Structures are given as C-alpha cells and as structure tokens.
Amino acid sequence: MNDTGQEQRYTTSDLARKFDACPTPLLANADLQKRWHCSRSTIDRIRKRHVLRSDGPKGGHPLFDLLTLLKFEGMPDPLRAWVLGTDEDRQVLAADLLSIEDLKVLDRTLGGHHAETFRRRARNGKRPGFRLGKRWLFRPTIEDLARLNALRQASQEAQ
C-alpha cells in the first residue's frame, strides 16, 4: 500500500520488468530435500503424487522453479509476493522451510512443548505452516533465518 492507503496498481509489463530484474531460482532434487527436510525417495513420491513437472531442460536433471514450489506449498499468489516483495521477502521465500525441530531450537521458551503444540498453532494460524506428507513445515521469518544462522555458526565453532 502507498501512503494514501490505496493499493498501488501494477500493469503486466510493470510486473514483467520487475520479474526480469529478480528472476526466481531453479531448485534441484537435492535442494528440495534440504528445503522440505525429507529423503530423495520422498521427493520422488511427492512429485509423482502431485504431478510436479520439471521446469529445467528436457533430458537433464529435474529442476523446479521456486514459484511452482511456492504455489505447491500453499502460497496464494507467489508471483506477486516475489515480484513486489523486498530483497528480505525474497530471501525468506527462497529459504529452507523450518521443521518442528527447528522451531524448538529457535525458541527455547517453546522448546519444552510437545510437537502437537506446534501443529495446533499451525492449524489455528498462529504460526502459518502446512503439511507435506506426514511432516509439518513452516515458512521462516527474517529473524528466524538470522537466529538459525547464528546458532549454526556457534555450534560449528564449538566443534
């Protein structure tokens, strides 16, 4: 929204120019495994069950456009979020999703809670998340990403 409180209108050519300025990445199977916290065979099952087709070149390794994955993950308008978002917004959209275990590490005050507490919060909309197979996944915030990186660095330095 702009300062007057009205939503700014964008033409298709405006959106195309913005998209050309910041194209979405293509993710390989290994990237999906990391993003969704699952095995290669699980990725293959999900791809077959939901008919996720590769956006990469024919005959090569499968590659998936992030916008396709965001739509699959339940984002209502991924193109608009990507194109009209800030660099931080795009960083969050491209980041690996958080598992319940990640949430426990990030927030020590919630760490003692049972996994069902996190699932209930996701179902109630307190912490937006979605189910992928049997696993709940959550989109991180920019603060989550910063804290997770700091925690990972601290654990690497301790080793």
Report on this model:
- With 159 residues, this protein is mainly α.
- The protein is built from 9 helices and 4 strands; from the N terminus they run H-E-H-H-E-H-H-H-H-H-E-E-H.
- The chain has helices at residues 12-21, 29-36, 40-50, 66-72, 78-84, 87-94, 100-106, 115-124, 142-158; strands at 26-28, 63-65, 129-132, 135-138.
- A hairpin with a 2-residue loop joins strand 3 and strand 4 (135-138).
- It is globular and about 50 Å long.
Number of domains: 2
How many helices? The count is 9
Mean pLDDT: 85
Number of strands: 4
- Content-based structural category: mainly alpha
> What best-fitting shape do the alpha-carbon axes yield?
globular
In a few lines, what is going on in this structure?
The protein has 159 residues and is mainly α. It has helices at residues 12-21, 29-36, 40-50, 66-72, 78-84, 87-94, 100-106, 115-124, 142-158, and strands spanning 26-28, 63-65, 129-132, 135-138.
Which terms summarize this structure?
159 residues; 2 domains; two-stranded antiparallel ribbon; disordered N terminus
Task: Give the topology.
Elements: H1 12-21, E1 26-28, H2 29-36, H3 40-50, E2 63-65, H4 66-72, H5 78-84, H6 87-94, H7 100-106, H8 115-124, E3 129-132, E4 135-138, H9 142-158
Antiparallel strand pairs: 1-2, 3-4
